[in-house]
Amino acid sequence: MRIVLVHPNYHSGGAEIAGNWPPAWVAYLSGHLKDAGFTDIHFIDAMTNDLSDEDLAARLADLRPDVVGTTAITPSIYKAEQVLKIAKDVVPDALRVLGGIHATFMYKQVLSEAPWIDVIVRGEGEEIFRDLIRTVAEGRWPDDRASIKGLAYIADDGKIVATQAAPTVKQLDAINPDWTLLEWSKYIYVPLGVRVAIPNMARGCPFTCSFCSQWKFWRDYRVRDPKKVVDEIENLVENHQVGFFILADEEPTINRKKFIQFCEELIARGLPDKVKWGINTRVTDIMRDKELLKFYRKAGLVHISLGTEAAAQLKLDRFNKETKVSENKEAIRLLREADIFVEAQFIVGLENETAETLEETYRMAWDWQPDLANWAMYTPWPFTPLFQELGDKVEIFDFEKYNFVTPIMKPEAMDRAELLDRVMNNYRRFYMQKALFHYPWRGTGFRRRYLLGCLKAFLKAGFERKFYDLGKANYWGPQSKKGVNFNFDRTRKIAPAQMEDWAAIHDRKVALEKARARLKDDDTGTVMACGGGTAQMEESREPAE
Hints:
Blueprint: E1 3-7, H1 24-35, E2 41-45, H2 53-63, E3 67-71, H3 77-90, E4 95-99, H4 101-105, H5 107-113, E5 119-121, H6 125-137, E6 151-154, E7 160-162, E8 188-189, E9 194-197, E10 202-203, H7 214-218, E11 222-223, H8 226-240, E12 242-246, H9 256-268, E13 276-281, H10 283-288, H11 293-298, E14 301-309, H12 313-318, H13 325-337, E15 341-348, H14 355-368, E16 372-377, H15 385-390, H16 416-437, H17 445-463, H18 470-473, H19 496-517
Parallel strand pairs: 1-2, 1-3, 3-4, 4-5, 9-12, 12-13, 13-14, 14-15, 15-16
Antiparallel strand pairs: 5-6, 6-7, 8-9, 10-11
């Protein structure tokens, strides 16, 4: 049985300015399928190769697969739906499968707008997709589809059906990713000019940021054996010449004990001389591990993206955070002293955003002196609690624009064009000063080369008008504000079936809150998370691998 996996051709001008990122989902899914005996697997990276619909159709027609599978985060959902529409046209007998976080929670929306999709895999894909493929191979599809956990599909009577949720993958170390399917020469990290990979050490998050979906999708928090992770990285370095990797985890340092073991194993094998790496983490984890930062650097950790999120304390509170602004500055100072490049992430574009608050984020960014700064547009994922709490304040349902570079929310004090212009003004001022007075003169050797490489990535994206999707938005500078057009498709709405599902979820939530209120001994509080929060995982209570 032939299986073809397709990565949809979606571009936003966001993180991809630093390079082409290898789709790790393909490696983990295909590796688990091959271990189950399904070896005729092919991969089409339509994004990296920028394939047109016609080119994709020709590739599918040539391969003649029995199953076509693709995935989507929220902004790439329409491209993924189009992949399966093309499959329906050119290989109509192939089973069309969609996975990923958007379809997991928005399956009623997706099946309403794209009824040509045969089945949606809801949740972690490895075991569900394997069970699905076995059913197809044994000729039991579609008769036995209702018995497979973790699916959604349109039944013969036209109703949308979701089977019972599948359990999470308990043995992460049993998954052997197959990285051979990827075209490694095309996945380059621009700042260093080396091949890049995105391996996974843990899944899930024990915290519950109101704007995040990690904890909802992965459900429980699980950590792999650090030695197994380093085995995988060693394979990537030795067999695929990877020179830089980013851990895919939302926050690899949550489990301090495992993270230290991971670093120790990298050092023991001499890998820091061959590969450098980066992570995302929280300010509080940096403060907790201040004495370990030089050890982390010795293990090859050179880049940390910090979720400082916002300068105004009001915004930090809105996101279920307890970070103090002074802690953000101190964490950045500690990382600089450890010779770890630090990127400060700011969320902008809330409904209460003003010219003054945007200026404040710039002043704080310059005062803190991170090596890099990123101003991301506030984007409420449609499957998070925050999205539903915002209600009619969300007026754009064109999910293709939910990419952190397009202003989904309209601030009360300015229009979207002014918001974009002021954010670009922050970028211009920050990086112009860095380029003239910092990057060429701060440090030597690797530090200087890395900073100039980051500058090169920004300049390249800016010259090509790809940064922040500026070319598509018709933004050329302050003089072009009146001509900015984000090209929202305002005909897109939330499907009635999805609205009904949300209403049911809301009713259950209200009932649960009332039940909790009746418990006199209930002293649980909201768990804080991601760029700050005081919650820390006690080592004695850390989950087993």
